[in-house]
């Protein structure tokens, strides 16, 4: 039998003393007010309010960098993004039949060919069909299209960037860098094909650019990170 103290309380065992105290985090709640109408004798409805605690759904996105994500490449293979540690990256949503396709692919190819070896830049292209259905082909066709453009940088599986089925990586990118136009915030959602995110060597998104921004104009921003 375990000894007791003078107060009659059993002392903690060695295991209990060393075991950390586990504190369960209470979910965030808010008050939900519902209105109920009850008929009275005079025929008029009496309003009654019912107040109850409801749990608030918190964003599951607690990532600190892109290195915490795993995605699929254009061949369907899983790729952990920690392979890009120490590299400055550009992440972009691409489409094969967009008005921005020709100039963006040509300049991304030039940017990669010039700086992949000398500066270690990496470009991660994610096909997306959410804007004008301009990337409707299969991954096999998209890959063939990109290869014909001279692409050597990494191509990934076709994804959604907006909505409830948005890829978790892109949710993180949008949460970290909402769009700002002329000094005004215009929301988190991706507006069109070829939205670009610059990622620093620690895997953190640092700049976001709209579709109209040409890849070669990013060099000044990239040079600050190399």
Automatic annotation (TrEMBL):
Alphabetized UniProt keyword annotations: Oxidoreductase, Peroxidase, Selenocysteine
GO MF annotation list: peroxidase activity
Family designation: Belongs to the glutathione peroxidase family.
One BP annotation, GO: response to oxidative stress
Region of interest (Disordered), residue spans: 1-57
Native source organism of the sequence: Henosepilachna vigintioctopunctata
Membrane in keyword set: no
Domain Thioredoxin: 60-226
Protein name from the UniProt record: Glutathione peroxidase
Ranges of Basic residues composition bias in the record: 20-29
Residue ranges that the Swiss-Prot or TrEMBL entry lists as coiled coil: none
Keyword match Transferase: no
